[in-house]
Structures are given as structure tokens and as C-alpha cells.
Amino acid sequence: MSKGLTTPVAKLSQCCLKKSKRSFPGLSSTRRGEIHMIIGPMFSGKSTALIQRVKEDEAAGLQAQMVNSSRDVRYSSFEVVSHGGATRPCHCIEKLWDIPILLGFEHFSRVDVLAIDEAQFFPDLASFCISAAEDHHKKVIVAGLSGDFRRKRFGQISDLIPIADSVLKLTSNCAMCDMTSGLFSLRTTSNWENQELIGGPDSYKPVCRSCYTSAWAEQTT
Fold first, then answer.
1. Mean pLDDT across the stretch 180-206?
2. Which residues carry a binding-site annotation?
3. What is the Cα 104 distance to its own chain's centre?
């Protein structure tokens, strides 16, 4: 197991590791682990892109499992729902190391692709993704915010960038000038104390650099 793995279910994950090395029908013994990232601001199409990746992998004959954070139940507690209306059944969980326990180790060992939405909310994101890819040889696709509303580090997303196979950064149209790419998530409410504030268009706007700096200056003076 990875040296950084110190989760309460580390012992159980070792059992899962032993099972994952067994040969199952349809599971290639030469499967290699991968970590792919889809990041960007609010409303940039991260969930839509994640769902599309899962569909492509399933069309290629891979078994996929999608998970979402139990903190984000704005639209559903059993589906990933994009702002554009795309949906996909999922398990909503608090910690990623709950996955092998929830699915059962036999089922977990058969999963080829793990798709993680709202990844910034998972406190064990880095340790789980590293172990899933390097110990269990799974393809892990992570979708999450590239930064918080202050343009600061959010959760463990940035910890995965140095070890990811690929990083796709999406943008949206700037909601203020509509002429340039929306790079950042601008919080539009009066709550500036908490980093986590789950919301939709009523709480956030994707904005370009120029509009962000102008709006930030107005809100902080």
C-alpha cells in the first residue's frame, strides 16, 4: 500500500488489495492504474465531461462506478446531476474509503473505472486515488473545482496534479462581460467566512480575470 495511507480502513483496504489481484472474467490482468483530472470553476461543465468519460469507458467494455460527495445534494442524493441536466446514478458518500466497504470487496475488485465528482469535498482524496490507481490498478477520473471563491487551494485537488496522467481545465463564459472565458468562481452572497458554501447560480458566477478582480475589489472595500 502507499506509504501515505493512514485511513481507519487501511486494514480493510489491504484485504481488498489481495482480492483485486485475483483473476476475474472480463478483467485484464495487465490493467494499469491511471489518474485523470477534470477541473475548472463553477458552471464549466465538469460533471457533464465526467459523465461523458464514463459513458465512453463503458462503451469500451469497462465497468465503472460513479461517486459524489454526500455534502452536495442540491439536485439528488443518488445521482450526479450536471447544471446542464445530464444525470448518472451514483453513491453519495462522505469519505472515499467508504467505497470498498459500501460496494463489497468482490464488487470493488471488479470495478475498472472510478469516477469521482465534487472531489474537493473528500478529505481522503489523495490517499484513496493514489492507492486505487497504484495498488488496485484502477482508472480514476476526478472532477472538482480548481480553486475556491478566493482563488485559493480547495481540498486536496491540487495534491493530485503532480501525479495525474492528465489534467483538463475547463472554462465557462464570463457571466459578467460574456466576452471572455470564465476562469474563476465568484461568490455573490454576503457569506465570506466559510470556504464551503454549496450553491448554484444564486451563489456563484463564473467570471474572467478582469471581472473577478474588479468584483473582488468592490466586495472587499
1. 83
2. 204
3. 22
Residue list for the binding site for substrate: 204
Where along the chain do its domains lie?
10-170
Q: Which residues are catalytically annotated?
A: 118
pLDDT tens-digit series, residues 140-179:
999 999 999 999 999 999 999 999 999 999 999 999 998 8
Longest dimension (CA), the chain: 62
Q: What's the pLDDT band for 30 if we cut at 50, 70, 90?
A: very low
Q: Give the three cell numbers for residue 96.
A: 472515499
Tell me, rounded to whole angstroms, the distance of Cα 13 from its chain centroid: 21
Mean confidence (pLDDT) of the chain: 83
Band (1; pLDDT cuts 50, 70, 90): very low
The CATH fold of domain 10-170: Rossmann fold (3.40.50)
Torsion, Cα 148 150 155 157, to 10 degrees, reads 60
